[in-house]
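Aim 2 progress update. The chain analyzed this quarter is reproduced below.
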Amino acid sequence: MHTLVTVEALLLLAASPGLAGLLLLGPAPANLPLAAVCLLPLGPATAAALYALHHRDHDLTDLHPARTYWRGWRLNALPSLRLWAPLLAWLAVIAFTLTHFTATGLPAWWAVLLAAIGAGSLLWGAHAFVLTALFAFRTRDTARLAGYFLFRHAGATLGAASLLVLTAAGTAVLTEALPALLAAPLLLSLLHSSRPVIAETQKDFTV
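Predicted structure tokens:
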């Protein structure tokens, strides 16, 4: 519990510049590009949280989650941004298109297709973040492995999908702040469902 609370607080602290910017933006679709920029710090913050939760010390007399978190942030800030920035831009394009879909003149099934592509991109991103946080691969190799594991380990992908659905439902029913308030438990659950991905990566793709 101490680790979860500490990691949650540090994640919010690391992402706070962008989160503060989001609070100043209105809900208008025209603000989506600015919202994407505000979400950039969330990438390194999330990667550091995954690192800290994975490397948490199970010795109750030696708990230093803050030290581990900032080590993960230093190691993963740039690698995570190389994946997070393009993914965020892609998702922003999809969201902007869907919010202005009537102006495109496209048939309705295109909207369903775009939504499916966006969901698939988020699931790919979940695998990519786990790999980035725990392994030191080149960006293109991480991207390829994330795509490979998307279908290779359907259970892990379904686990990430269930977290995505639960988060979206909770946000819609309760509050938009829910993903931020429950970020650490959600990321711990993601690590748990990603154990097959982590194990195979350690066995077959590392020396």
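The radius of gyration is 17 Å. The chain has a mean pLDDT of 88. These observations will guide the mutagenesis experiments scheduled for the next reporting period.
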